[in-house]
Design goal:
Layout (H helix, E strand, L loop, with lengths): L1 H29 L11 H9 E7 L4 E3 L8 E9 L10 H8 L3 H9 L5 E2 L10 H10 L4 E9 L6 H4 L2 E3 L1 H8 L9 E3 L2 H5 L1 H4 L5 E6 L13 E3 L9 E4 L3 H13 L5 E7 L4 E8 L28 H10 L9 E2 L16 E2 L1 H7 L2 H14 L3 H8 L9 E4 L2 E5 L13 H5 L1 H8 L9 H12 L10 E5 L5 E4 L12 H16 L16 E13 L3 E12 L6 E11 L6 H16 L10
Parallel strand pairs: 2-10
Antiparallel strand pairs: 1-8, 3-4, 3-5, 6-7, 8-9, 10-17, 11-12, 11-21, 13-14, 15-16, 17-18, 19-20, 20-21
Helix pairs in contact: 3-4, 10-19, 11-13, 11-14, 11-18, 12-18, 13-16
């Protein structure tokens, strides 16, 4: 009996020992990079336990503005101090004299630290070049003067650039077995997402030292500087954004209390984005809690009368704009008396200037009788549907899209609506199923200003290596498909200018500006009500300037506001003044007719 018990006991011990050995093998050999259901990287965790580090650069690529200035980050010269200084005698007095601070403040900061830190954080003391050289020449272990990259507190064009975050599942789905750290930052929206393959970090630049269980140096007091092996990375994306102008226009949007909406400003010659503002702003702490992360300028919205520009183009080509023909603009689109706008009998040009719904409802019906697809054809000719962001082949990426978040827009959703006269009339005034993005509308205005030539819109001009050498450029590129004739484009230009000069026109706000403007307003019913009886509207103004020699296409939009509130005409006018002042110094007085 005793022998049996001993055998059983020995067997249990062997089994337990075997299980422990298997567990040890699992920890040290098999599941070192993805232990447990939480996918814990044991190697990384072990190294982290034995070391402390100060990240100088997270290794992810960065954004520059059109002149090469940093757009999403700033580099500061800071003093980095390591916690082990509290355990050794170091020359705090000499460092303090160089900085012009007290030795006590340095020592006290170190005493309170558990990890390496930049002295003065969260608002670090900024060093001069001379101070950096003096401190580093002291060669004090644990004391370093370094250039450190910080994300900007307020990033210009934040929704266009996008946000980044940690997402191991998404990381694996994008890059498979590529050797990337589990906590690698990846792009979740905007250009960060579109260009993620170029921006993703190959490694961090950091200062590292190894410690024992009490935080004391494990292998002496030598601190290692670790840098990714490839000197050409991280790369930089040179955007088309003008940083100074962007920040100025963001202030203007906020001054005009645009809570949901924004603006798009295009350079007509290069067809690139000079500024793009989207509201609401991003809540960096909880970015996906509301619409702040969404770029409203590339999303579909109901355009209202801005869409009449498309109907006008089709009417011109089909001969429905006869100046001798008059429309009863004392009636609504349905034929009932118009109690709000009683303009009387107007020809096509004046109807466009005052945005007469009756005229464009009738014309849209007549066009639909000729061809049920005609409004969609002209929407495509004016680049208002189908997507306008730059697309093309680069490296191994086919049909690469710069603006992946862009929604393409539409005129009709259902085929029944396309063939229905009443729905055709509603579509003719930019209602019913019509949806377009402010970016596409800005491109439509740029297309008209160029005489019908339609181009893709660029947000990024080039990809550059860390040393400034160009990896690849994004050339100006035509949009495919039919385009307007120069004759039709010229007539549209005159119609858009008539909106401004007509005494009853909706663009009368813009007569005394330093640039002559051409454009079209829009007020769209959303079908969304508050307090049961108050409908919300989308307010638009889209145009270009100067009229004679166009340089800029601009769209301003305020979404979901009451009909008698939140107009964007004053914002558009202010932006024209600001652009003029930006180009000509501080004075924006007096008209300039070019």
């Amino acid at each position: 009996m005793r022998k049996k018990r001993m055998v059983a006991w020995i067997s249990i011990c062997i089994a337990v020992f075997g299980l422990l050995m298997l567990r040890l093998a699992q920890l040290q050999l098999f599941d070192t990079e993805s232990f447990s259901k939480h996918e814990i990287n044991l190697i990384e965790a072990s190294v982290k336990q034995r070391s402390q580090e100060m990240v100088v650069d997270n290794g992810r690529g960065n954004f520059l503005d059109r002149t090469g200035d940093p757009l999403s980050f700033e580099t500061s010269s800071v003093l980095v101090l390591f916690p082990f200084l509290k355990k050794i005698d170091w020359e705090a007095d000499k460092v303090a004299r160089t900085l012009g601070v007290s030795a006590y403040s340095l020592k006290n900061a170190v005493e309170d630290s558990k990890e390496p830190f930049a002295f003065g954080d969260p608002d670090p003391v900024i060093l001069t070049r001379s101070q950096m050289e003096i401190i580093n020449e002291m060669e004090i272990p644990g004391v370093f003067a370094v250039e450190r990259k910080y994300p900007m507190e307020k990033v210009p064009a934040a929704q266009l650039l996008g946000i980044i975050g940690e997402n191991e599942t998404l990381l694996k789905s994008r890059y498979g077995e590529k050797d990337l750290l589990p906590r690698t930052l990846i792009g979740l929206s905007g250009l960060e997402k579109s260009f993620d393959e170029f921006l993703v970090a190959e490694g961090k630049s950091k200062l590292v030292y190894h410690v024992d269980g009490e935080g004391a140096p494990l292998f002496g007091i030598n601190v290692k500087y670790i840098d990714p092996a490839n000197p050409f990375y991280p790369i930089n994306l040179q955007t088309s954004i003008d940083k100074d102008l962007q920040m100025l226009l963001e202030e203007k949007v906020d001054q005009h209390k645009i809570n949901r909406g924004g603006l798009v400003l295009l350079d007509i010659e290069t067809n690139s984005i000079l500024a793009m503002v989207s509201r609401p702003v991003i809540d960096r702490k909880k970015p996906f809690n509301d619409e702040g992360t969404e770029n409203m300028m590339v999303k579909q919205h109901i355009p209202g009368s801005v869409f009449k520009t498309v109907v006008a183009a089709a009417a011109i080509d089909q001969g429905l704009d006869d100046p001798a023909r008059e429309f009863d603009c004392s009636k609504t689109i349905s034929g009932a008396p118009d109690l709000k706008y009683d303009y009387g009998m107007l020809n096509f040009q004046d109807s466009f200037a005052v945005s007469c719904n009756r005229t464009f409802g009738e014309v849209a019906r007549e066009l639909q009788e000729q061809d049920p697809n005609i409004l969609e054809k002209y929407a495509e000719k004016l680049s208002i549907t189908g997507g306008v962001g730059w697309k093309g082949d680069i490296f191994h990426l086919e049909d690469f899209s710069q603006i992946q978040d862009e929604e393409k827009g539409r005129v009709f959703l259902l085929d029944e609506a396309r063939k229905d006269k009443n729905f055709a009339a509603l579509s003719g005034i930019g209602q019913h199923e019509v949806r377009v993005s402010p970016l596409a509308v800005a491109n439509m205005m740029a297309t008209i200003a160029r005489g019908g030539e339609k181009d893709m819109v660029r947000a990024v001009l080039s990809i550059q290596y860390q040393n400034g050498a160009e990896m690849t450029a994004f050339p100006r590129q035509k949009l495919e498909g039919e385009k307007l004739s120069p004759f039709t484009a010229k007539k549209l230009q005159k119609l858009l200018r008539e909106v401004i000069v007509n005494e009853q026109g909706t663009g009368r706000w813009f007569k005394d500006l330093p640039y002559d403007v051409a454009g079209k307003s829009g007020t769209a019913e959303t079908g969304i009500y508050i307090d049961d009886d108050k409908q919300l509207h989308n307010k638009w103004f889209a145009g270009y300037f100067p009229y004679e020699k166009p340089k800029y296409a601009l769209v301003t939009v305020n979404l979901g506001v009451l009909e008698n509130e939140g107009g964007v005409n004053p914002l558009f006018a202010d932006i024209v003044k600001e652009v003029y002042a930006f180009n000509h110094g501080s004075s924006a007085e007096g008209p300039e007719n070019n």
